[in-house]
Design a protein that fits this description.
The protein is α/β, with parallel strands linked by helices and 351 residues long. It has a single domain, classed as Nicotinate-nucleotide-dimethylbenzimidazole phosphoribosyltransferase (CobT), large domain (Rossmann fold, 3-Layer(aba) Sandwich). 48% of the residues lie in helices and 9% in strands. The chain contains 14 helices and 6 strands. The chain has a 6-stranded parallel β-sheet, with helices on both faces. Helix 2 crosses helix 13 and helix 11 runs parallel beside helix 12. It is globular. It binds alpha-ribazole-5'-phosphate and nicotinic acid (NIO). It comes from Chitinibacter bivalviorum. InterPro entries: Nict_dMeBzImd_PRibTrfase, Nict_dMeBzImd_PRibTrfase_bact, Nict_dMeBzImd_PRibTrfase_N, Nict_dMeBzImd_PRibTrfase_sf. Catalyzes the synthesis of alpha-ribazole-5'-phosphate from nicotinate mononucleotide (NAMN) and 5,6-dimethylbenzimidazole (DMB).
Length: 351
């Protein structure tokens, strides 16, 4: 296993001391204070500068879509890739608004789509196959495919770090990927499918019951074939974009750059990464609590507390992008506020 860089405790301590001297009652900026301290240890600086965020969306299709587990047809994956390239998706709006550079990485979109040289976002076309196999009945991918997807995500994170990005964000697009993510979360946490499987894009109760059955069948099948490690489960019930996301988080940690999670699917990928190497967890922060049923339990398994709870259930890194201005504000407050001494403001009387 590659030794991971460690957050610097001395910088966290310096940032904590600075927070105690800023012109506000101690703790009055709540979690913004914790965020500034957390980031100081990792960026690493006692007063970190404005973050330079990058956002990668990994897109791929899922064989399990044929089971009827999504409210939308599989063609929507490719259609949404076109939408991302044309700038019309929710994430395009948020990336523009918060000045986040956007890259789309096709790691296995099944349907063809035109290459538009006018596109708004950068496109990396590195499909591994036309979607995964149907995880209910067979391993979603081969070991070689899984490693390839992981490596693509890892490289994207490493390149972004090399280019000077200081906050790495990943999102996903892949019809039926909440089924794969739910199966992974169940397998890696031991929670029951009934507690983890949600409505995804908005399925009805009958389809949800089927989705629970599909997840249970997939877990039974993979257990019978000896699945044990996080990598085994990723290959058995994951997806190409989920493997790339897990590799992305591993790459961010290996580069010593913080990574911001999004919703249900990215959290499933983060669980895989952290089960693979616990040190990766030190570089992850949670953005929001998704409406998808099992998301909170998955975040709890990672010991992460989401910043926002807006009832989002979109993916595309939309919840993560919404947290970027919060993180920027945390750092600006930390770096730019006057101390009691500088401002000549009397400090608290309380010990
Ligand atoms: C138009 C559209 C845009 C999306 N953007 C993200 N997702 C989200 O929905 C999908 C997962 O839900 P399920 O497992 O139910 O298919 C993923 O593609 C996810 O990113 C979208 C879904 C749709 C339909
Ligand atoms: O939380 C998510 O990431 C999510 C939830 C539903 C559908 N797509 C994504």
């Amino acid at each position: 296993m590659i030794p991971m860089p460690q957050p610097q405790a001395a910088l966290a301590q310096a940032a904590r001391e600075r927070q105690s001297q800023l012109t506000k009652p101690a703790g009055s900026l709540g979690r913004l204070e914790d965020l500034a301290i957390w980031l100081a240890a990792r960026l690493p600086s006692p007063t970190p500068m404005r973050l330079k965020p990058m956002l990668a969306i990994f897109a791929a299709d899922h064989g399990v879509a044929t089971e009827g587990v999504s409210a939308f047809p599989a063609e929507v994956t490719a259609q949404m890739v076109i939408n991302f390239l044309n700038g019309g998706a929710a994430i395009n709006v948020l990336a523009r608004q918060h000045q986040i550079s956007l890259a789309i990485i096709d790691v296995g979109v099944a349907n063809d789509y035109p290459n538009n040289s006018q596109s708004i976002a950068k496109l990396f076309r590195t499909p591994i196959a036309n979607g995964t196999a149907n995880l209910r009945h067979a391993p979603a991918m081969s070991e070689a495919q899984c490693q390839k997807a992981w490596q693509i995500g890892f490289s994207i994170a490493q390149e972004a770090a090399k280019a000077g990005k200081t906050l790495l964000i990943a999102g996903e697009m892949g019809i039926a990927n909440t089924t794969a993510a739910a199966a992974l979360i169940c397998a890696l946490t031991g929670h029951a499918a009934e507690d983890i499987v949600g409505l995804g894009t908005g399925i009805n109760p009958a389809s949800r019951a089927l989705k629970v059955q599909v997840v249970n069948d997939a877990i039974a099948r993979a257990t019978a074939s000896g699945a044990n490690s996080a990598q085994d489960w990723l290959r058995e019930v994951g997806g190409f974009e989920i493997a790339a996301l897990a590799g992305f988080y591993a790459g961010a940690a290996a580069a010593g750059v913080p990574a911001l999670l999004d919703g249900f699917i990215t959290t499933a990928a983060a669980l895989v990464a952290v089960k693979h190497d616990a040190a990766i967890g030190q570089w992850l922060i949670a953005s929001h609590a998704s409406q998808e049923q099992g998301h909170r339990l998955a975040l709890q398994a990672l010991e992460l507390e989401p910043l926002l709870d807006l009832g989002l259930r979109l993916g595309e890194a939309s919840g993560a992008a919404l947290c970027v201005p919060l993180l920027q504000s945390a750092l600006a407050l930390h770096g730019e506020m006057a101390t009691f001494a500088e401002a000549g403001v009397a400090a608290s009387n309380m010990e």
